[in-house]
Structure formats: C-alpha cells, structure tokens
Amino acid sequence: MTSDTAAARPGAPGSGADELAGLPPSPAVWCSGLRKRYGRRTAVDDVSFSVARGEVLGLLGPNGAGKTSVIKMLLGLVRPDAGEVLLLGRRATDPRSRSAVGYLPELFRYQPWLTAAEVLDLHVRLARVPVPAAGRRECLALVGLGDRAGDRVGGFSKGMQQRLGLAVALVARPELVVLDEPTSALDPLGRVDVRDIVLSLKSRGVAVLLNSHLIGEVERVCDRVVILDQGRVAASGTLAELLGQREVRLRLVGAEGRAEERLRAAGSLTRSGDWFTVQLPADDDGVTVPDLVRDLVGLGVRVHAVEPVRISLEERLLAVLRHDEPAHDGAGHEEANR
Amino acid sequence: MTALTVAGLTLREAFRRRVVWALLILTVALLALSGWGFSKLIGLDTELGTMTSGEARLVASVLLNLIMFGFSLIAAIGTAFLAGPTLAGEVESGQALAMLARPVRRSAVLLGKWLGLVAFGSGYVVLAGLAQILVVRAAVGYWPPSPAGGLALLAAQTVVLLTLALLLSSVVSPMASGIVAVGLFGATWVAGVVGGIGRALGNEGVERVGTVSRVILPTDGLWRGAMNAFQDPIALVQMGPGEAGFPFLSDGSLTVAYLAWAAVWIAVIWGLTALSFQRRDL
User: What count of Cα atoms within 13 Å lies in the side-chain half-sphere of residue A292?
Assistant: First the structure.
C-alpha cells in the first residue's frame, strides 16, 4: 500500500521502451480511487492500494465492508463508478490484463456436469496458457483432489468444490492469485493446506491478494494488510506497522534506583507492583531484551518472569473498526486520505 | 477461440444434462406415431367416400405442417429453457465468476453460448424435420416442394427465439426469461392466426395484427415461410379462398426483404444482449 506506488501510475503507457526496460516490474495490482454505488448504498468509496510482485496482501474488514466488491472491480466483474485499475501492468478494462491471474471467488461454483479434470482443461483453454496434462494433474493433487480427477463436480461436497476452485486459480501459471474467502468451506486440515499453498506461491514470487475472515490465517501469511470498513480503507500497512511496537513485561524483585534507570534506558516504562512493562524500540534488533536481563541480573535484581507482549492483528482490527484508536498511527493510510 | 470453447461447452452441457437424450426419445416416439398415422391415411373411409392418394397427399401436406409445428415448438421451448439458465443461471449461481475472470471478452463468451445454442436448436429441428419428411414420403409418397428451404426457415425461427431468450436472460431471472420467450412465441403465433382470419374475412385492421406481430418478432413469419415450403402447392387451391385463415397452411413464400429483416432483427437483439451483458455487474 505504499503511497509511492499508489500515487504514480506504474507501467503507464506513454514511456519509451528504453525507459521502461530499466524500471522494476509494475505491481501485480494497482488501483486508485475505486468507487461503487449499488442504488443509494455506497459499497466502495475511494479505495486505493497496490500489491507488489511476490507480495501477499490481506484484505480484512467486517461483512459488507466492500472487500468482495473491490476484488470484483479489480477483475473486471463489476464496473467501478470511478477509479482506475492496473493488473500486472495492464488496464483492467483490457481482458489480457487477466492472462496471468488466478481467481477463487467467494461464491465458488463450477459446471456440475463436468469432471474436475475437465473444469481445469476448460480454464487452461480460456487462459490460453499451454499447461501439459501432467501439470493439471499435479495441480489437482496439490489441493487434495488427485484421485477425484475423473469424478463429476456435481457429486462434490462444498469443501471439495472449494479445493477445485483453488486448483482452477492455480492451474494456468498465475503471477497474481486472488483468493476470496478461500477456506470458508474447508476443514482445519484444508486451512493448513491453503496456508502452505499461499506461502509456496509467495516463495515463487507469485503475488497473492487474500480476503479472509480468519485473522490468524492472514497474520501468518500476509506481508501487508488493508482493513476496509464501510467501503473505505480504514487502515493499511505492513504487519509491523499495524501491530505497532512490541513490548516486554518483566516481573522483578529489587528493581529500584539504578535498575529502574536501566529499564527506562531500554524503552518507555510503566510499572504495576512487581510488573514492569517496557516498550521496545521499532528498530529493535533482538538484543535489547537479553542485554536488559543481563544488566538487571548484574545489578542484583531477581528476575522472575520475562514475557513478550504482542498485540494481535485481531485486537488491532477490532480497535480500528470500533474507532478506539486513530487508524493510521505509523501505518500507511495515505490512500484513503488522498 | 474463446467463442468456440464456450460453444463446445454449451453443446456438452446439452448432452451431459441428458437434454439430447430426452429429445431423442420424444422425437422417435413422435415420428413412430406420425408414421403409423400417415400410413392409415390411404384408403381411409370418410363420410365422403374412400380417400384417394391425391387427397391423402393433400391431408398429408397439412398434417406435415402440423407435426413440423410440433417440432418447432419443442425446439423453441427447449432452446428457450436452455438459453435462460445458460446466461442468467450461471451468473446467479456464480459459475460465471471464475470463467469471466479469465482473459476473455464477455461478448466472446456470449457468442460462444449463442453458437452452441444455434447448433443445438437448429440441429434438432433440421434432423427431426428431415426424419419426419422421410417418414411421410415412405408412408404416403408425399415429398414437399422445398424441403431444404423449409428446414432452413424452421432453424431460423429457432435462432430468432433463442436470441430473444438470451437477451431476456441477460436482464431477468432464468425462469422468467424462458417463460417470457415462450409466451411471446405463442402470442406471435396466435397473432399470426388472427391476422390470417382477418385476411380471409377481408378485414384489414385484423389482418394488420398478424403483419405487425411478424415484424416485431419474426418467429411466426419464418414459420409461415417454412409451412409454405412444406405444403403441397395445390393445397390452398383445394381448400378454397374461405379457408385461407387455416393456421397450418401458408399462402405465400417469404420475400427477400423479410428474410433480411429477420437477419437484422437477430443482429440487433444479439447486439443489445452483448451490451447488456457487458454492463452487468456479476
């Protein structure tokens, strides 16, 4: 969501070929000022963000926040009332922009009269990408449908259909994968499979846009997060930016005078009885806490407990949605304000 | 490329959903029954005496039109109810989402659906109609004056109706689109019969009902052209001027201008469907 990518149109036509050759590849997704109204209800209002190549971006927000509408506008399934979208460097109005895009819709339904393998064949033909039969079989095996390739989709459970949808999204060698609630019908094992697949995509440099209600899932796999609320970007940034500074809680006995000064030197300090909470600096390189404990012991302080405190993404999300705190402390909320 | 893929998919749907088998059984039953009925025509004792082979051919010509109407009705209803779910149903169920997120133009997908339905509907009326003509020939020795032209017009009638059903299915629900398309088809046929009666009675106002309806929806006009191609040319003369309003005889072949209008009509409705589908939020 960095504002630099959102502010200037990357890969915009008009530049010379030589100039373009030296530029980094355009973002996988770039959108600016997206708006959509359904009748009198504004579903999406001035949403801008970008997803870099190889990045995993999580789209979070309550029901009706406009997440699926945003995804559909990116993919040309819904016409935005205003705003621009570039997919992999091409305008989204050009169907070729979706050549290397895989999509698992929230409402996943595939031709019930086709077999799983035939559904993949169809999508490979529509994507016009040469994927050998072995590649298609591997794709089905990856989502756990290797032995159901010849079965009609009509006989599949919801979970199996969602797995098939995942295979459809992955089959045509995508550079961008858009997953809209990819685990809504999956069992816990299936969720782990999806997480592994997303991490594997990331390791191969494939960008992923993930819309999920399962915050733990998002927290584990996403590099950055965009929180939508009532159609607007309520907060956005990297996980580190959104979750703020880390803290460490220590239970100490005999921490007076110089020991307390040493604690203050490590970071902003609050005390409650024997418990001391130190806010760690954002650029902490991982030695602040061990050094602090060593020095405290050296000063004769008895260290009973050292607990890292980390605000969860869920807590942060709830705080943003309930307006308990400013939405963009340190996080990139530039897009919504532009 | 996309259009051909989608056309193949549409045809495969018709086979896999057993539409083809259901139609095949229905058609074979209809052909067998009509073959048996036609074979009984010769030597039939009526109040006016035994029917001669010439009279039998005349009756066969009228009955052939009646049965062809049956086939065109089956094709019309079949394609109208296939066309509805194919677009509106796929949008409603979400099947369209994954497909249209591929690098495809919506107009190419629509063209594919249309081509698939055209192949299915036209293929059905041509094959079933040809089989019926052969059955009649075998039973009573009657061969229509222009069987190829008649079958082509029957196919064109099916194309008109399925194009309309596709347009409707891009704006209303699948069920509503099928019902409205078949309803309009029936209404135009009735208007054509009313127009024929008006003509027989020399009432221009009533006659105009048929003319106007044939311009608004060319199914009935094409059907009358097809009937004219199937019927014995002397049938109308034998029936006499007072019977000109009879709904299973047609008193004139189609003009080139009307055929051109039917082609324009299909193109315009197809264009409107493409426009409506292009703008639709999924």
Answer: 27
Q: Where are the domains of chain A?
A: 3-100+174-242, 245-309
CB contact under 8 A, B95 and A109: yes
Q: Three-class SS of residue A322?
A: coil
CB contact under 8 A, A122 and B12: no
Q: How far apart are CA A144 and CA A117, in angstroms?
A: 13
Q: Would you tell me which CATH number, out of the four given (2.60.40, 3.10.20, 2.50.20, 3.30.70), belongs to the domain A245-309?
A: 3.30.70
Model confidence over B42-79: pLDDT tens digits? Answer: 666 655 556 666 676 677 777 788 888 888 888 778 77
The phi, psi pair for B202, rounded to 5°, reads 75, 25
pTM for this structure? 0.82
Residue carrying the six token digits 């580190």:
A240
Interatomic CA distance for residues B178 and B174, integer angstroms: 6
| CA-CA-CA-CA dihedral for B49, B50, B54, B60, to nearest 10 | 100
The two domains A3-100+174-242 and A245-309 share their CATH topology (first three levels equal):
no
Find the residue in B nearest to A77 (Cα). Answer: B282
- Can you give the length of chain A in residues? 338
CATH architecture under which domain A3-100+174-242 falls: 3-Layer(aba) Sandwich (3.40)
